[in-house]
Structures are given as structure tokens and as C-alpha cells.
Amino acid sequence: xxxxxxxxxxxxxxxxxxxxxxxxxxxxxxxxxxxxxxxxxxxxxxxxxxxxxxxxxxxxxxxxxxxxxxxxxxxxxxxxxxxxxxxxxxxxxxxxxxxxxxxxxxxxxxxxxxxxxxxxxxxxxxxxxxxxxxxxxxxxxxxxxxxxxxxxxxxxxxxxxxxxxxxxxxxxxxxxxxxxxxxxxxxxxxxxxxxxxxxxxxxxxxxxxxxxxxxxxxxxxxxxxxxxxxxxxxxxxxxxxxxxxxxxxxxxxxxxxxxxxxxxxxxxxxxxxxxxxxxxxxxxxxxxxxxxxxxxxxxxxxxxxxxxxxxxxxxxxxxxxxxxxxxxxxxxxxxxxxxxxxxxxxxxxxxxxxxxxxxxxxxxxxxxxxxxxxxxxxxxxxxxxxxxxxxxxxxxxxxxxxxxxxxxxxxxxxxxxxxxxxxxxxxxxxxxxxxxxxxxxxxxxxxxxxxxxxxxxxxxxxxxxxxxxxxxxxxxxxxxxxxxxxxxxxxxxxxxxxxxxxxxxxxxxxxxxxxxxxxxxxxxxxxxxxxxx
Length: 533
Known about the structure:
Layout: H1 2-15, H2 26-41, H3 51-66, E1 76-80, E2 88-92, H4 94-118, H5 132-148, H6 155-173, H7 180-211, H8 216-223, H9 231-248, H10 258-264, H11 267-292, H12 297-320, H13 329-355, H14 360-385, H15 399-402, H16 404-418, H17 424-439, H18 443-467, H19 501-519, H20 521-529
Antiparallel strand pairs: 1-2
Helix pairs in contact: 2-3, 2-5, 3-4, 3-5, 4-5, 4-11, 4-14, 4-19, 5-6, 6-7, 6-11, 7-8, 7-9, 7-10, 8-11, 9-11, 10-13, 11-13, 11-14, 12-13, 12-18, 13-14, 13-17, 13-18, 14-16, 14-17, 14-19, 14-20, 16-17, 16-18, 16-19, 17-18, 17-19, 17-20, 19-20
């Protein structure tokens, strides 16, 4: 009897052990493993060999991207309940793979932009080198959390992934030691994020109390049959849960941290936040609304529609007010532009509440376009900041004379963001988002979007025109770019103005990707449509 009882206990314990599909979790797991490797290696690698840490980080992110190839079927799940194998905490479906491609690709381009600053270059406008070991560890850790989030299928994993992606970002923003703007930006980012997370956790607790589960599919089933006395609690939980993801997506009124954070952070990190952080927020928002809360679309649908209208309007109006001669006005304009773009990205999510999940493909397609061209614009800004650290819009005047190919690339990126030819992929993405609002019967939101697109044309075209203007002339009549250097600078310092190869590679990759997508924009939508659940 004792032997039988022991055998039964052993069988029960065995049934509680979850199997792990290591290939399914390989992309975020490898990224996290490389982060730990870099952190430990930094303790032993001498200062002159610190560039090896950057090479290892870039190689690790590239390897993580390659690990998406064997997962392209999108049919893997792991960490499933033993009693209910179809209920899993991690799913590598097509949606997951597309967002992981965006996240890891964005992190790789950020790493390329960062290599020069860490391996002998200077950290933007402060002239101080960034600590290599800490930087690479924090960047890889954040990328690992961001890659984990789209695969999460329960609220606990979603919250953990969101915080793993966010907490290292606080430190990255404040990594310019001794810089007041950097410290202030990190503190503002941290305090606002903590507040949003606290509100989201309160919402998660309400949802768990109403449904008794944290798995998204189980929550959806539970919300379909909530007892009447818990209906108000469930609706409040649904609304509050969206707050944390709206903050990460920089949706108004949770956007106020964006401009100061982008200005205070190293430029590669500003680029990272504008794309990867936004992808994290939108993927989490899509997961909870479409999978967990479909029965409460009457709660989150109107809320997201209002957020979309408010976000695009606030972002575009603030971008329109940027002065060309104000310090860091170029970075501020990109920051407010990213807020406006977040408003466009929210439109299909709102439409999904009225017309079904097919609308989500428009958000994914727009996110892919935005990631490519926005990273390219930040890469050009990082290049200009090497010689003009204040990074004003006026500093881009004459760029076409100094660096014609870079100027052409920047003009193309801005036209893509504006949705004008030859940036066909930007036009195609905006038309797709506009159509999703019309198809869902959100005519008022489509009108608001159309007005905002017209507003945005002004500042995008104004910046493009500045790039191709003739450079201002110095007092001796020669172009400013050819004016003699100050006496305190030796004649040979012009050599330092040579563009670093990794930055040029990042600009080239994004430009080629943007041109390729503009040549076949329908492939983006088809690819995004296949990413639906």
C-alpha cells in the first residue's frame, strides 16, 4: 500500500512538470544569455579590448534573429498546463515572430549606432564615453524582455516581460554620467512608468478576481460569463490593465515623458525607445484586447479610439511648434513625431473592437514601416550630432552639400513618415490604417486622422527642404562647412569628422529596406495579415 501510494505521488508530481520547447524560446533566451556573458566578461576584459563586447553583442542579436527562421511555421507553444495542454504561457505563432523580428532587428540597428560611441566615439552632446559593459548588458536585457512579451499568453508573463524590457531602459537613459539632462530624463521616465505599472497591476488583480485565471484565453472565457455583481469590477480591470501598455506606446495622456527622455538619452537609446519600446506597448495592447478582452470591446474600443485621436493630435501639434534654432529641436521633433505615429498605430486596434481582428494586420504593417524609417532618421541624427551636438533643425541645412547620399536617405525617411512619394510604403501604410477606420464605421476617427496627416506634412516637408538648401555662408564668404576651424583645434581634426562605418551601415540598411518596401508595399500587408492569431 505504501509502495502504491508512493508511486501515485510520483506520477502526480511528474504530471506537474511542464515540458520546455527550447527552440521556441531560443530568440529571447539567447539574447538574455549573451547579456549575462557580456556582463561577466566586462569584469575580466581589459579596457583596450572593450570593443569585443560590442562585437559579441551585435553577433548575439544577429544570431537571435537567425533563430526565427526555424520557427517560421508559427506552430510552437510551451509552458502549457499539464491538465489543459492547449492553455500555454508561451506561444511562438506568426504574430510573435513578426514582433520579435521587429524588436530584435531594432535592437541590432541600435547596437550598430552605439558601437562607435562606446568604442572610441563620444556620447552625443556631452563628450563623455559611455561605459561599455553596462551599456551592452542593459541593451541586451531590455531586448530580451521585449522579445519575450509578444509570445506571452498570460498576464503574469506579460507584466514580467514588460518590466524586463522597461527597467534596463531607465538605466540606459541615465547612462550619461554627470549629465543633468540625462539624469532628469531617467527620473521622469522612471516615475511615470512606475505609476503606470502600478495602475496596470491593479487592473490585473481586478481581472483575476473576476475570472480566476491569468491565462489570456481562460480570461476571455471567464469574462463571457462574469456574475452580475462582478461586472463592474471586470470592466474596471479591463480599463486599468490597458494603462501600462498605453504608457509604453506613448499614447496621450501617458506621453509626457517622451520629449525630455529622448533629448536626455544617448541618441541610439532614443532610437531604441522610439521603435522597440513602442512595439512592446502595442504588442501587449493587442494581446490583452484581442485575445483576453474581446467580450468587453464596448469598454476598450471607444477608449482606444479616443486615445488614438488625442495622441495623433497632441503629437502633431507639438511637433509643428518646434523652433529650428532651439537646441535639440531635431530630436524633439522626432520625439513628438513618434507620439503622433503612435496615434496612427492605435487606429486599427480601435477598429478591431468593431470590425474584428482582421484590422490588426494594419497595425503590424504600419509598425514595420515605421520601425525601418524611424530608425533610419535617428541614425542620420546620430551622424549629424557628431559635428553639431546641439542637433537643431537648422543644423541640417546644407547636409545635401556635405553628404549627398545621407541627405537623400534622410529626405526619403521623412517622406515615408509623411506618407508622400517616393516613400510609397508610408503612403500605403497610412491608406491601410485609414481604411481600417472607415471599414469599422469610425468615420469621425478617419476624419481626425486625415486632418492630422495634413498637419504633419508641413513639418516633415519643412525639414526636408532645410536638408537640401545651400549651406549658410561664413563671414569670409565661404560656405560654413568650409570655414576655418577655431584656432584651438589642430588642422588635422577634420579627419575626426569622417562618418563611422557602423552608423553608415545602419543608414544604408534602413534606406535599402525602405526602398524595397516601397517597391512592393503589398508584401508588407500580406506578411502582416499572416501574423494574425
